[in-house]
Amino acid sequence: MLDHAYLALSTIGIDIASIAVSGVIVALAYLVYGMTGFGSSIVAIPMLTQLIPLKTATPIMLILDLMAGLLVGIRNLKDVQIGELRKIGPWLCIGLVLGVTVLVSAPEKPLELILGVCLLVYSTWRIMSSGEFRALGAGWALPLGLGGGCLTAVFGTGGPVYTIYLAGRLRDADQRRATVSTLITATAVARLFLFSASGLYKNPVVLPLAGWLLPCGALGLAAGALLRSRVPAARVSTLLWAVLILAGANLIVRSSIGMLA
């Protein structure tokens, strides 16, 4: 599987070292997911796009998120809050359709610039905030559902948006984690259909590389589950947002240079 991924990636200038580094990135991303219940794609995508194209990284992370969401969500079905899923679900579906349309049709560098700006703004806000989410009314399902759906389809990074909504609606941490994980799984299934219909999985790189990265993600997920009760969540979050500020700034610079070149 790794040989197939290497042969396919070599045609677009990606070497074996980059594939190995991608495995480390994915393991770290799912370590965060295992500890927090979200964050895999928002950690992995900005760093993976330093190595592979965005339109390759996004469908790969979709496969990995689908598997991780099934593992986490199935264990905690009793805590899933169906009522909140019904509120945000329709708006999220509309956002997914809009986002896939943008991903398929838009040039790569402007998308990377948008991702960098979103990461920089959101991560700076999170690291400067108190860490507590305010209570939100059900009306927030519309803007956060649309925005989260678009970000999920294009970048696979809608998890923090769902978390803002669900953290403002659910006070119980177990209910919040299970509902976020279920929402990630549901959006992954929807994106799998939309990505397949749009031809993103015709890319010969995607499936072989996803097969190589899958055990890396499983290892990180298991490590995160073990560390969840041993490492303070606040410390993990602060480190996460600091890393994403750097990743966002780097994406802005790199994509701006690419657009001007």
UniProtKB/TrEMBL annotation:
Name of the protein described by the UniProt record:
Probable membrane transporter protein
What's the family?
Belongs to the 4-toluene sulfonate uptake permease (TSUP) (TC 2.A.102) family.
Q: InterPro entries annotated for this entry?
A: TM_pro_TauE-like, TSUP
Query: Cellular location of this protein?
Result: Cell membrane
**What taxonomic classification does the UniProt entry list for its organism?**
Bacteria, Pseudomonadati, Pseudomonadota, Betaproteobacteria, Burkholderiales
Q: What is the organism of origin for this protein?
A: Paraburkholderia diazotrophica
Domain of life the protein comes from: Bacteria
**Cited Pfam families:** TauE
Return the PANTHER family for the record.
Answer: MEMBRANE TRANSPORTER PROTEIN-RELATED, TRANSMEMBRANE PROTEIN YFCA
The residue range of the signal peptide is none
